[in-house]
Amino acid sequence: LEEAIATLREAVAIYRKTGIESGTFSNRLRVLAVYLDQQGSHDAEVEALFRESAAMNLRVVGKGGASSSLPVRQLGNFLRKRGRAAEADRIEDDLLEQMRSTLGPDHHQTLISSYWLAWEHRNDNRADFALRLAEETAKRAKAAYGPGDRVTNVAVDVFGLLMVNSGRTEEGVRLVAESLANATAALGPDDSLVNSLTWDLANARREAGQLTEARKLYEERIALAKARLGADTTPVAHLLRDNSEVLLRQGEFAAAEAALREAFPILEKNAPSIFSRYFTQHLLGEAVARQKRFEEAEPLLVDGGKEMMKRASTLDFRGKNRLMADATERVVRFY
């Protein structure tokens, strides 16, 4: 990490000397901010770098260059972790208004920033705002670019997922399925976006309680991911874990255990210290406990839950509160 930071500092210094702004320069500023944040004890510099990157992005796209809302979203998450949620909301809203006025409300980059902003707020105190923004973005994208456009497909997908999240599951699943069908027709079944949307539809069906349909989608994605990426890759492990949640809800505890025992060593090898590894361990403990092998289950379930708790504060995903509440409930039920 120290070597990466030193290299990025050198690169940023060179860019500054040229005086030329670009998307690449902005991205170097953003990545340097991310690495310094990981290292710790650099809050003021991290915030300044995120702000500089975001401002440069907007200037670059105003001149016809590529842009991204990622620096602002990461700055927002940085501020929220430090108790500055209102400030983060204001910065994100300001960026969206600037993009609308600079690029126009139907510009691809404006629409992308809109649906990402909606997604970021899906589980916090601005969830109603997020749902309205997602609906508006999907309508604008459809009207401006048609149903086969990538941005349209993602905008409709995000709106559908937020509908599911708000409890309007039937409408939400229909929208996600519509997005997948349109993307498949326009891009073909092997496109990376189609793969992502299929995963989203599986998750949406799982949340809606359509477990048989969700399981079928997960199993198709698992087979495809193994063939394309290899059986011991992290995406395969995540798909196996997601499918195990369906199996647990269906009461197929032995099948869930088998899926999790396949996923867990992959994550132990590829990502030994991240949240996902311990979440998978925790679910494995749940699958074992449901088969009444309590002594074997306890360290998996409880230790996995403890490690999840330690890492929860590092997650940008705002649904983590529900995730941790579910984990706590599993431990309480176990005892």
Task: Tell me what the structure shows.
By secondary structure, the protein is an all-alpha fold. The protein contains 16 helices and no strands. Helix 8 (150-165) packs antiparallel against helix 9 (169-187). The longest helix has 20 residues, at 43-62. 40% of the residues are buried. The mean pLDDT is 90.
Question: Concise description?
Answer:
This protein is mainly α and 335 residues long. It is built from 16 helices and no strands. The radius of gyration is 21 Å and the shape is globular.
Protein traits:
335 residues, mainly alpha, 0% strand
Layout: helices, strands, pairs:
Layout: H1 2-18, H2 23-39, H3 43-62, H4 70-81, H5 85-103, H6 108-120, H7 127-145, H8 150-165, H9 169-187, H10 192-207, H11 211-229, H12 234-249, H13 253-270, H14 275-289, H15 294-311, H16 320-334
Helix pairs in contact: 1-2, 2-3, 3-4, 4-5, 5-6, 6-7, 6-8, 7-8, 8-9, 8-10, 9-10, 10-11, 11-12, 12-13, 12-14, 13-14, 14-15, 15-16
